[in-house]
Amino acid sequence: MKRDLSRLLQPRSVAVAGGGAWCRAVIQQLKKIGFDGTIHALHPRETRIEGVPAVPTPGDLPLVPDAVFLGVNRHATIDLVGALARMGAGGAVCFASGFAEAAAEDDQAGSLQTELLAVAGDMPVLGPNCYGFVNALDSACLWPDQHGLTPVDRGVAILTQSSNMAINLSMQNRALPVAYLIACGNQAQMTQAAIANALLDDPRVTAIGLHIEGMGDLTEWQEFARRAARRNIPVIAIKVGTSEQAQQATISHTASLAGSAAGADALLRRFGFGQAHTLPVFLETLKLLHMFGPMPHGRISSISCSGGEASLIADTATGTGVTFPPLNTRQHDALRQALGPMVALANPLDYHTYIWRDTAAMTRAWSAMIDPDIALTLTIVDYPDARRADPADWACATDAAIAAHQQTGGRVALVATLPELLPEPIAAKLMAGGVLPLLGLHEAIAAIDIAAHLGVSDDLTLDLFLPAACDADITLAEDEAKQDLAAHGLAVPRSQRLTAGQEPPADLTYPVVVKGMGFAHKTEAGAVTLNLQTPGEAAAAMAAIPADQFLIEEMVTTPVTELLIGVVRDPAHGYLLTLAAGGVLTEVLRDRVTLCLPASDGELRAALGRLRIAPILTGYRGRPGADHAAILAAIRAVQDYVVAADGKIAEVEINPLICTAGSAIAADALIRRQR
Prior knowledge:
By secondary structure, the protein is α/β, with parallel strands linked by helices. The strands form five sheets. It has a seven-stranded mixed beta sheet, with helices on both faces. The longest helix is centred in the last third of the chain and has 17 residues, at 628-644.
């Protein structure tokens, strides 16, 4: 059911229920931010609270409120939500706790939440256990504590599952304009995805930032991602927490590779969301996206008055997708004209300090670095603490950065190497002049890297294959697993199952491999013998392995490399497909990429290209490459098998897939599934 959140989040009339300090704080914050709508209080005895008229019941209000803050106990919350829903209120924030989040300690909690949802009906409810929201666009808030937001005309929206983190983020002094700050509470009714989806309808929102603890309904997130892509609203997420999922299936290598972090990465990439891993990078990326949107690529230029800073930013970008292309002829000539013959020209550039305080000369030099082939030009400047030095001596840098942007129309950012050395008033002046202020070299490079690689996956058009409940009670024998997968197109070696004492067949093509059956990890158990040239050697190998059943199969020769193809069912993130460097060193190398099912051929090719062994797959130092078409066919066979089983599969693994110049053959296979 889709609920209209616009009245709740953009209210013109507000009611606050309760008489405690929290409710008084809500009224104070409404007045502080400059809310010019009507405010009423609900209290059984008081007639005025914080100068606002109070009435005993919702029915006594002179109008139907757009938004109501409920700062009462959980039982009174249910009664008030029911009354507000019946009168057609726009929505409510439920501050009280003691609902489903307390179910482990209180056996009433779950039933109370069920009752709350029933009485709310179609009326939107944030929470319970929720601080509410601040809308800095319309100077409106239902927020029971201090916050740092001030009115803005446009800006980013931040949604978090932590009220305390919301307070902290509101206090940022990085000149980031925050339009909405919303604490989602325990999301009994309005999920984080649904709230984010509603914000896409406000054209004043430039980007959306998400602090996510758990994702819940992936179908809702998929809908939000698709709408965000259609509306060209970039999304950045910081994902925390772990889930009980694939690591429990310790029988395979895939399970150790496809942990919750890999699942979250795959899902966010599928949705086209950028991912930050620290709050400073989260905020700086939001600021960049607010000003410029996604970067077209990661090629940037940098100019500073110190060789140390030039080296430092180059080193900071090492290992990222951010690069510093050599100066082209136009840049070189313009810089030479601006700086004269005494400066060694390069990118990053140390322009020396002799033009410092000459705003016109600084503008010419900085403008020369700006180029259509450059996504962003950085100027590195640290401003002094006004208590220790006169910041007026740095005004030339602010003016030159703004002038360079205005004269060229190029994207310009001013970066402080230390976050504390770019005061907020200067950052605000830069933003007003069209220049992006970035705080910290690491944060700047990380933000550019994220923004340069934001892109909606082609697979976003495909519906996620989501797991149903699966009681995986059987593990297929290797030959059975191979037969099942071969029926979906997987290439497997010719083989035969034998019991102890049986003679190895002569009609197989030797060399062969002999495997003892019944071992979870055959190599570690010494239950595999390779490169057996005759039936006699195969018989001797069988006699040396303590097993009752054996699999003897033709050995794949002339391999280029080995891959792992694995699928695990992850209740938190859907079915996950892992491609990795295969063989016995899989978990040591940890060279892997994880995708969500289903994945298109384009995404599969891109994933193979992200592996560190990709050069071996394509041919390395004159050696033949692997047959990519055969590899793709093998991956598709595994994917098709899982999808066709319609949720009955817990785990599939091919390790190794032996890749040659003309084939890709599964040398081992594992399937755990529901009977």
